[in-house]
Design brief:
The complex is a heterodimer of chains A (429) and B (207). Chain A is an alpha+beta fold and 429 residues long. Chain A has helices at residues 17-36, 58-64, 83-93, 137-152, 165-174, 179-190, 192-195, 197-206, 212-219, 225-231, 238-249, 314-323, 346-359, 372-381, 392-396, 418-423, and strands at 40-41, 48-49, 67-69, 75-77, 101-110, 122-131, 159-164, 257-259, 270-278, 288-293, 307-312, 336-338, 363-365, 386-389, 399-404, 410-414. Chain A has a domain at 336-428: Anticodon-binding domain (Rossmann fold), CATH 3.40.50. In chain A, 38% of the residues lie in helices and 19% in strands. In chain A, β3 (67-69) and β4 (75-77) form a beta hairpin. In chain A, α1 (17-36) packs antiparallel against α4. With 207 residues, chain B is α/β, with parallel strands linked by helices. Chain B folds into two domains: 6-93 and 183-205, Periplasmic binding protein-like II (D-Maltodextrin-Binding Protein, domain 2); 95-182, 3-Layer(aba) Sandwich (D-Maltodextrin-Binding Protein, domain 2), CATH 3.40.190.10. Chain B is built from seven helices and eleven strands. In chain B, the strands form two sheets. A six-stranded mixed β-sheet of chain B has the order 2-3-1-4-11-5. In chain B, strands 8-7-9-6-10 form a five-stranded mixed β-sheet. The chains are: A alpha+beta (429), B alpha/beta (207). Chain A binds chain B through residues 402, 404, 406-407, 409-411, 413-414, 417, 420-422, 424-427, and chain B through 114-117, 127, 130-131, 136-141, 153-154.
Amino acid sequence: MKKIQPTILKGTRDFLPKEMMKRNKVMEILKSTFEGFGYSPIETPIISPAETILGKYGEEGDRLTYSFKDRGDRSIALPYDLTVPFARFFATNYQDLPLPFKRYQIQRVWRAEKPQQGRLREFYQCDIDIIGSKSLICEAEIVKMIVTSFEKLGLKNIVVKTNSRRLMNAVLTSFGVPKEKTMDAIRIIDKILKIGEGVAISELEKIGINDPKKIIELLKPEDTNKNTLKKLSAYDTSELEEFLTYSTLLGVQEKNIQIDPMLARGLDYYTGLTFEVISPDWESGTICGGGRYDNLCGLFSDKDFSGVGVAFGFERIMLLLEKLNLFQDIKAPSQVLVTIFDKDSVKDALSTYKILIEAGVPTEIYFESEKLAKQFKFADKKQIPFVLIRGENERKNDEITVKRMENGTQKTIPLTQLVSYLQNYYEAK
Amino acid sequence: MKRNNVRIAVQKDGRLRASSLKFLESLGLAIKKVDERALVAQCSNENVEILYVRHSDIPKYVLNGVADFAILGANVLYENSLELKKIKTLDFGQCSLKIAVPKESPIKNIIDLNGERIATSYPNSLCKFLQSQKIHASIIEINGSVEVTPSLGLADAICDLTQTGNTLKANGLRSIHTIFDSVALFVESPFEDSLKKKFIEKFLESK
């Protein structure tokens, strides 16, 4: 029979155990941090009626959305991101949810892109939102949670850049920028780091804005947040000040937060504060971002809900942690391998195995009574740190030998002390 | 309710109690004599209360703001990975956290501890030390009489506090390494308080 080629689609991935354990660890850290701030997990369907996904991201987004006809000839789409499915979820369920509602969601999304470096067809997104409150405590809490999450991942020097969309609008209005050009101007200013000041100025001039140089000068962040706000004192900066007061009270340090009046985050739907997180160790873009919006569910419901949310760039964070070599303490799932000494030892090995699994020591047993060297090799390949050996001598003396694979040292101890010995081996904890 | 006095926690039983009281009296506090089992003693000349608590519980009293000051061994802070603000290093309570093995043991230096069983009442201090030395061993936590564990077959080595080394000798043990030397410290709680501040100004800064 002709075999099928075991291929996967370009832009999708198989995760081998080592990689998967790293991903699980990062997800666990993020989830436990989110839950520590009172955020609840939710999940939304992978397949949805196409009309709940299409038409929300503009032409480009529609083109990149995976969609197909199912067997009942219905148009089905896969999620392009987690924002729209969450808006739909909230519009469906808000009456049953406690308000304000705080959720986190880590799920796969799909994009029908041409796969290339850093662009996948299937990847994870990780979103958190508070919806149903206009208090700036929400923003402060989210920033505290961002800083805490990255700290727990080993990234202590991240900077949360923040700005007020209202303030930016006020500045542009004061320079005579007409309303219909505000969004264009914001988009140009937002990419100033990428395109350079000179290009930005000429682009702003091109859309008919006077004095772009002065605008940019005014919006440049100063050395401290206090000085940035001072420079803008002719405008209403109360929103940023209140937010800073709250986040300081929550223990967010000045080094982790920067008011950047040029920050916009291109998206149109932000209405209040916006956030972008950068790391000094990562030059290729932001690792987390979001902001305040006023009308998340507008497409699905007549009700207006104000909320604030950010998305963690899960795949980028994985690459960054890998680059910084922060995955050294990833352990194999099992810590101990029970070997089978010879054909007559099967019963004995099983009873040792039983003791350990029932005591909660992560253990596995070798399935065949093969040469010990072969069993050791298996432990090595699986990176299991301890191997147990119980031959005739050990059995006679009610003992067991524990071999540490890393350096080959062996220790023979009373069988009755095995669980305590392994549990207290500090690496096995 | 807001407390209107200053509280100092000291060791209830053990080698630090007498020296701690002597030190406090040398500052000028007149501590009323109380029964040895009493948990609280007042001062007759100041609005100061002395709390007698278990040595290992002292950090809890200070960290919860129930006591403003405490006298405790540096080893307790190290064991609990705490950083309480030290006001003064005192001249008593000297002792060392040591690793010891039976005299005839083949274990000669700390590298030989790899894979062995080490009994201790200070598991965190020992764990930190082993990690810093990249030694892997099984830490057997025992709350007292650690020195007998090797002869009973429960451990191959011990990690314990010693002052003179006599207990080690009496149990046929020899020290192979000193993890750290400890001494009694006068520390303060991490909370701002005006009475506490006044106490420091009056009794410690003027001395």
